[in-house]
Amino acid sequence: MSTAERQAELALPSVAERRRKKRSGFADNWWRHLVALIGVVIALFPVAYIVSAAFNGDNSLSGSSLIPRQLTLDNFRSLFGTQRHTTGHATFQNAHYLSWFGNSMIVAGGTALLTVLLSALAAYAFSRFRFRGRRMGMLTLLLIQMFPQLLAVVAIYLIVLNTGDVFRFIGLNTLPALIIVYLGGAMGVNTWLMKGFFDTIPSELDESARVDGATPAQVFWGVVLPLAAPVLAVIALISFISTLNEFVIASVILETQQKFTLPVGLWQFIDQKYSEHWGPFAAGVLIAAIPAALLFAFLQRYIVEGLTQGAVKG
Amino acid sequence: MSAGTRALSLPTRLISAFSGTVGLVIKIVLLSLVNAFAIWAAVVLSDHHKWRALGLLAFVTAAIDAIYLTRRWTLPLKFLIPGTIFLLAFQVIPVAYTINVAFTNYSTGHILSRSEAIANIEQNSLTEAGNGASYAMTLMRSDKHQLVLALLDNSGHAFIGTPDGLRPIPRDQVTIAGGTIASAQGYTPLKGTELGSIDTELSSYKVPVGGGKAIEPQGFDSAVVLEPTYRFDARKDAFVRVKDGVLFKDNGRGSFVAANGAEIEPGWKTYVGMRNFGRIIHSPLIRSPFLKVFLWTMVFATSVVFLSFALGLLLAITLNKPGLSFQRTYRALLIIPYAVPAFLALLVWQGLLNDDFGVVNRAFHTSIPWLFDPNWARVSVILVSVWLTVPYFFLVSLGALQSIPSELIEAAEVDGGGAWQVFRKITLPLLLVAVAPLMIASFAFNFNNFNNIYLLTGGGPALNNSPVAGATDILISYTYKIAFAAGKGQDYGLASAIAILIFITVGTISAISFSRTKALENLA
Amino acid sequence: MKVGRRPAVLLAVVLAVALSLVGSRSAPAAHASTKAAKLTIWVDNVQKPAVDKITSSWGTRRGVDVNVVFHSFGTIRDDLKTVKAENAPDVIVAAHDWTGDLAANGLVLSLFPTKALKKQFPKYALDAFSYGGRLYGAPYALENVGLVVNTRLVKVPKTFAQFEKEALAFKRKSPDNIALAVPQGSGGDAYHMYPFFSGLGGFVFGHAKNGALQPNKLGLASKTFLNNASLIDKWNREGLINSKIDYGTAKNAWLKQQAAFWITGPWEVDALKASGNPFRIIQLPKIKYQSVPFLGVQGAMVTKFAQAHGVESLAKDLVASEMMKAGFQLDLEQANLRYPANKLAGKRVNDPILRQFGAAGAGGVPMPNIPQMGSVWAELGGAWVKATKGTGATSARVAFTTAAKNILDKIAGG
Q: I need a labelling partner for B433 at 20 to 30 A (CA). Which of A55, B296, B515, C130 fits?
């Protein structure tokens, strides 16, 4: 494969150079640990109260005591339907938590994947081609997202409502509808971030591939995308997490318990005017944060080490 | 060395996968699926007689085919089209919709169409006539299978009501049980499940009793004498108040209004031209606090972005050290605030910052009025927003740092640049190329960050000398206050008009900032 | 463009897929003329079991298919404005303070229950669902706050002076103690503060002759109230009322016996029972006037969609007759633990806590149901916050006068 050889030639020297590692001991790094620890404490301090509420029996999101008054797993049980959750004499039917969780994974996962794809395609065009309206196009992408969203929800609802009249599978109360609505925001900022990264991938690489007869599509899939792993991972993560926590649009489009995503489903616990049930809500949020944390742990490698794994840089 | 080879072999494999026949087949299959789906959609649309949508579909499909089947000049479009379709559908159209609403009177009392409003006024203007006489009602059918009402008044007189009028019937022809007529000679009572099937007939059933009054069934057991308060005069296209003949005319803004200004509810939704914009200019409620609110919005958005970026970058650089122990753990923990729904975190912060009972003041033995003093509340709002935003910039900086060739930095260090110098002269400028647009986007996001303000302080605390706007109200939360919690309730028309002005403002600021960043130089 | 095998392959795939899709397309929704009429009800998850129960027996009797749909309570009102007619409900459960908004929008139908049935309801419950002199909803449950007294810590006060003395004495016992757990927080809470407002002679809107509320007759800064407002400054000085106490703080303080008095409502019954604290619920003792709470009335309404769906009479039969009867109201009381609006049903309530809350609501004022109330909440709550935030508080006279002015500005419109 001549392409590979050419790339190897370009890449090898810099890889070799990069291998020189500096030794780093604790003496040099103590301040890094200090900064990181302070950061972690501030980051986790309020979260600790959510953990506390999840294990607390009194359903409050209390700002006054970190140690639960009554330590209990009831909140978790009530999520999975093994514990009947009562308010007054009424009983919430909560056995839907697993389906909410599944729905959220489908929506957030699908949105994240497609967002990465759509924004990468666009960023490639903006980074590698010179065409009329390019500058304008990129500006518009960013500006359009600055429109206050307070009112857009009504419009989105109406669009999905009318689409659903004809095409049931992307109508109200369907997960695909929610995904495609989220994809409306796929390009925007992500394309900018991605383009910035693509720009740093030396164009000699594409050009050499083009010389070997590769089409632009082949260069995109074969050369640029693999090298852009860190930024793809960042965007996947940002998109996954923000979709996972999105409430307003999801609550407008989804209508039945079986179709709810986590935030919409959990919202019922605190929907009552004063008898909020923070306990199950906090428990549900905690469990929901696990996939996000796992995904980050998994993607971390690509985000920070993707390139140092011997890829190619100017 | 082996790592390098492995990484290189991946692109090679991918290239071969997408080259030649395989790539072509994938392309053809995808395009075919799009076309096939379009044909199916066309059939469904024609089933539903949605001709305009059909036209749009045909146009979009043809455009896609043209773009992907043509060779050269459409090349950039091939990469841009997929995202653009979604962008148009769910970002551009909602914006267009909002702009459209800004020119209407869409608000509480103006959501129906004109004909719906007229029908509603006619129905809901019915009032109980006289002393509110009501009848116990039994539904029956005559021999000729006609629906009639067997009515019993409070003093025990029995009647048969038909669309022709009310007719008394002698007591000996009826049996009365449980306060209603159980049977009547010549009529068969309707029972049980039969009732469900006559609903449409029944709900428009009227037994005229003279003077414009009529007995109308309410449900299945009772009927009341009703008379209209207003009568629609189709010739004059206006409502007439029956009592005194006062005319309520269409005021051109979606309401029937009398000469003295009295208005009938509901009105209807209609276009009102620039009226909403005129209200913005003339209303002291909006005009007087505008500059103050605008300045605070700027301060808020700017400081949140810069502080978050600085802290996020600091953390990213701190942890971007090969071989640092616990590195992964630190990073994972720092992301957590981002993985928790923002509104939940905001409510927790509200509790933590409580002046007398919050943990923050107790832990530090202070008594800072975090949320109750105007200036401290502003500080709190900024700090909490920074807390929420830092993980984003941490993540982004972490990714962007990888795009800076370490050779450059090493070279600079070899040349004798101090760490700070290297950072300022090399790392930061390179980083900003990628991050500056995100900072501008984040600025715009925070400019309109309704949630943070609304959930933490509700725009408060109230200022003594000021009208409605509170100390921490930003433009969008203030918009909410005057468009959704003032006047007669929700005023979408006004809110949309303000949203457009906010959009123009934030767009202009952003565009100016852009022209000052390096980001656009690359685009020239 | 090169012409080769490509178009042929393309065409083949397109045709194959298109044919299979078109073949399997769903027939245009044939509006099957089902025999039984169908009635759709939107109800929140707390009340759904009770509504299910009563409507299924009613539906069988009337020969109608009842479709009870869970809908988040907080979104029922606004979703009714955008819902498509096909999916729209014929009946909704509602809070009485939506009445003005829904009626002004023309979304609900007026109701005419029989006189005999109306007599079973207190006048204020029917007024709560009336707008412009017409009734738009069938009330079925009442809720209001009361003063919950921990009887282990203090004596149940008979007069306001006693209450004030007990509360302050309790507060002095420990620096952690709170005199009165009444929630406000930085955003304020005009609802929980209303007994103090009414006790000083305050009211929100005045009435017209026909009972309709007058948005321009604001009672927020009435002479009577302002004359009594210096008491608020006194409460602030002595620490009886502290606006920094928010909902969570108030609740925790009472549960942990750091407060002997708590202003709350029946939604906290579970917490009250679980606390193990002995308690009594009373109406806040009279200050200058009877200290009545705001009343919230829940009920059901018939929407304008019932007409188009051909179930108008059915819906009215269900709402204005069936649901107003004592039997249904008792069923619902069991389900959502609120005092029934129907007086006959009220007499049969056994739950002692509910009875006490019911008594604490005597003479209460329904929250104004006209849309202009939206301009009031934040300002009224804010005035209390400003006047009771301890050191640096604004004088009550100034705080409430400013609030009144702001409300009038807001009502006049942006």
A: B296
